[in-house]
């Protein structure tokens, strides 16, 4: 595919140099969360520490040249569960085991159906308003939330499926309420000023690793009989949640294979999910992991729709070692054989702290990665 066409300047997400969303929690915030958990400080006192940490982070993001910033997910413990718990009808639950990563197991927490699921008054809306109020003029705020398919996987895992069936004996009603709840939250975020929302999604990453075969067996009789059924289900619920939204609202997605304490959960290229993910999911851009051989090659990108963008996650957020500059540039041009260079951008493969534990690198390493992303992008795209 030719890459000789003129390159345009990006004025909305995704930007040529970009981030996925989460940042390492500063020590003051970690300490405050520990004290809150121990009952030593109040919720208001914790919020005050969060507020200050987010204001300082925004200043650092802007100083780094980022055009779309986040709150670093500083008010969350998890990238996904905190959002789920904020929905009406979804509750915290202690699980019998954590999520399994390569050589590590996470804390034992999950989310379970406790009533009819709706999206009114989600706490993330007020959190967005705070971030929006503290950015400089011309800087955009990107709101990250877990994808609807991710919630479905959580609610229908073996430990939670009985509770889901008690409230929703018909699966179609559950799917409809999940999509409607997400739609409500997204519209509320839009009303608060959000113009870029990113759906973080590990479901496709698990599909490529074949680990979803276990999910098929536990998903419930008649729910999903094959990987193709799961692909169809994930696509339908994600698209239903983002249907009929305002034209000036950008919906992007980040496809992940797991990011916990510098470990990973899944491996496999995008080949088996390129269709329907890249050609039928109604998002504007895909933030894709491409920092290791576990992600496979670029050929599946030929399925990406003509008006969509791909943000190449070529630099790892899992360690502080800086990548070789020319190697990254060469890989960008390799990817441009399948997606026009003008429709490509650059970022790290994931955030720096998908959970409050964070990856194993320093804050200085974190900002050095972002500086390298920016420098390379400026050389490639001007």
Features:
5-methyltetrahydropteroyltriglutamate-homocysteine S-methyltransferase activity, Methionine synthase, Met_Synth_C/arc, 13 helices, TIM Barrel, about 375 residues, zinc ion binding, 7-stranded parallel beta sheet, alpha/beta, two-stranded antiparallel ribbon, 11 strands
Kindly describe this structure.
The protein is an alpha/beta fold. The chain has a single domain, classed as Alpha-Beta Barrel (TIM Barrel), CATH 3.20.20.210. 39% of the residues lie in helices and 15% in strands. It has helices at residues 27-37, 43-63, 81-85, 123-132, 148-155, 161-167, 171-191, 203-208, 212-218, 227-241, 274-280, 325-335, 363-381, and strands spanning 68-69, 88-94, 100-101, 104-105, 109-118, 140-146, 196-201, 250-255, 285-289, 309-315, 344-348. A seven-stranded parallel beta sheet has the order 1-6-7-8-9-10-11. Strand 10, helix 12 and strand 11 (344-348) form a beta-alpha-beta unit. It is globular, with a radius of gyration of 20 Å. The model has no long low-confidence stretch (mean pLDDT 93). One of its GO terms (biological process) is methionine biosynthetic process. GO terms for molecular function: 5-methyltetrahydropteroyltriglutamate-homocysteine S-methyltransferase activity; zinc ion binding.
